[in-house]
Amino acid sequence: MAFSLFKKKKNKKDERYQTLTIKEVVNVAQDAVNLVFEKPASFEYEPGQFITLIKQVNGKKIRRAYSLCTTPFEDENPAVTVKRVEGGAMSNDLNDNASKGDQIEIMEPMGMFTTDYSESNQRHAVFFGGGSGITPLMSIIRTILLKEPNSKTTLVYGNRRSEFIIFKDLINTLQEKYKDRFNAIHILEEGEADYNGRPTPEMIGQICSEIGVNKDTECYICGPQPMMDVVADGLRKANVDQTKIRMESFEAGKTSPTDIIDQSVGAESEVTILLDGEEYSITVKKNAAILETALDNDLDMPYSCQSGLCTACRGKCVEGKVSIDEAEGLSQEELDEGYVLTCIGKPLSDRVRVEIG
């Protein structure tokens, strides 16, 4: 596979990367910890966004995206929640080994699972979470309670058993502090709860009826994909306005391709990548993602989710054409301006030029 490098005179530092120091490690549930970081002056984020942690684990450099569970309007230090995942290299390493004083490289906060806040708002926002999917939800819930005195929130939270409820004490505290503005409904597969078993569309419909969901209610969903699909189905059957439903996904959508490769052109494309003031030229097969080929050539590209959702790998296509199927993380405005996601973007023309950032 061909690979060549053309250096420019200007070589600027990529400001999207920072190094954070762990201030505290807090156990928040069985098999889940909060990593609380010291906050650099330059670190800013919106409730609901995530950061990408970059770490050497067992000799391999890996990246994982974790949602910020804190709110910048009250918490002095940002934090992420890391739930142990069976076979998960990063999650197990952090749960077992993370300590105060450790330094971790990150990519800047990003993500569009956010909302605007106004003291004049009078909304009912309902949050459906499963397992560690509560992390961005908690950030948004707390911010609404802080910034919008006339708004109310409901958390519908599913877990296997009570010991796996992340932020159990915080949820109880919020219920006590905001008696008429915050309510939590627990769904457990095992043990006493408001609802028992795994969520079903019928259960979601019953909950919607119980809490008074109507056409103006905003709904936020975050959790494992099967759980999110069930909740979305239940909301549809409950006639919830689809424009009021927001989902934070961790898997790319399964869609049929709309970009068809022109069979009259070659099976490979010459792709030029502009990154950090330098140009790199690689040969990419037209059925391969640009990021995958760049990483195979030891090019240190920015990325995180590798599924078309987080936009860490975003670049602007300034020559040629790149597929945009499943680029769910990009807004229509970004698509119109020519932005692509290299983690799922495949070259559709013989020559492609992409400026990362």
Report the sheet-strand fraction.
25-35%
In which range does the helix fraction lie?
Answer: 10-25%
CATH class label of the largest domain: Alpha Beta
Strand order of the largest sheet: 1-15-14-18-16-17
Instruction: Indicate the overall shape.
Output: globular
CATH architecture of the largest domain: 3-Layer(aba) Sandwich
N-end to C-end Cα span? 25 Å
Mean pLDDT: 89
Number of helices: 7
In total, the number of strands is: 18
Order of helices and strands: EEEEEEHEEHEHEEHEHEEEHEHEE
- Taking pLDDT < 50 over at least 5 consecutive residues as the criterion, the unreliable ranges are 1-11, 251-265
Q: Outline the biggest β-sheet.
A: 6 strands, mixed
How many structural domains does the protein architecture include? 3
CATH topology name of the largest domain, in short, is Rossmann fold
Rg, nearest Å: 22 Å
What is the CATH homologous superfamily assignment of the largest domain?
Nucleotide-binding domain of ferredoxin-NADP reductase (FNR) module
Helical/strand content category: alpha/beta
